[in-house]
From TrEMBL:
Reactions the enzyme catalyzes: uridine(2552) in 23S rRNA + S-adenosyl-L-methionine = 2'-O-methyluridine(2552) in 23S rRNA + S-adenosyl-L-homocysteine + H(+)
Organism: Siccirubricoccus deserti
Job of this protein: Specifically methylates the uridine in position 2552 of 23S rRNA at the 2'-O position of the ribose in the fully assembled 50S ribosomal subunit.
Residues that coordinate or bind S-adenosyl-L-methionine: 78, 80, 96, 112, 136
This protein's name: Ribosomal RNA large subunit methyltransferase E
Subcellular location: Cytoplasm
Protein encoded by which gene: rlmE
Any one Gene Ontology molecular-function term assigned to this protein's record: rRNA (uridine-2'-O-)-methyltransferase activity
Amino acid sequence: MKAPTPGGRGLTTRLKTAKGRSTASQKWLERQLNDPYVRAAQAQGLRSRAAFKLIELDDRFHLLKRGARVVDLGAAPGGWTQVAVQRCGAKVVALDLLAMDPVAGATVLQGDFQDPEAEQAVLAALDGQADLVLSDMAPNTTGHNATDHLRIIGLAELALDFALRVLAPGGGFVAKVFQGGTEKALLDTLKRSFATVRHGKPPASRKDSAELYVVATGFRGAPPA
């Protein structure tokens, strides 16, 4: 799996008709048709263009090691799971509230990661603790930046809480946040729990998107309550 290199001049594809579509819908469809990551995902059999975000994060931070046990939270439709399986070749568990089509080489579970039973099912599927917990989850946006920022930070905090319970020593954690700075409480917990904490915006993230990823490695254990 290889990420495309955007920037070529290429031909622009436009919709032949806008009949029955709103202006916003037409613009979204045209953006999809002209997105090199969308085309590359289709060509490589990946379920979403988001798969390239993980590919680019891994190329930069070297997260997906052969033999690593990986948990993908909020995994549907499965693009990140596909990348994790291809690069780790070991035990990969995908968990989502929504039903998700099987991914060859991965265990796909349906449930809420905050549910203790779902957590135990993940650990049972891994046959041990995780080496890496991934979260590309994001809440539905409201258009109000401050509200959206608080919502995604809250979701990242829940994902981190899960990671602190299931990670093996030396493990890693990746979660989506929004630009504007990771909240101090979340960042403090990360810095106490991991040897290294960094931020990254992969090229596959659209330029007009506020998304950013926090990448923590070298798990040292959960801080005291």
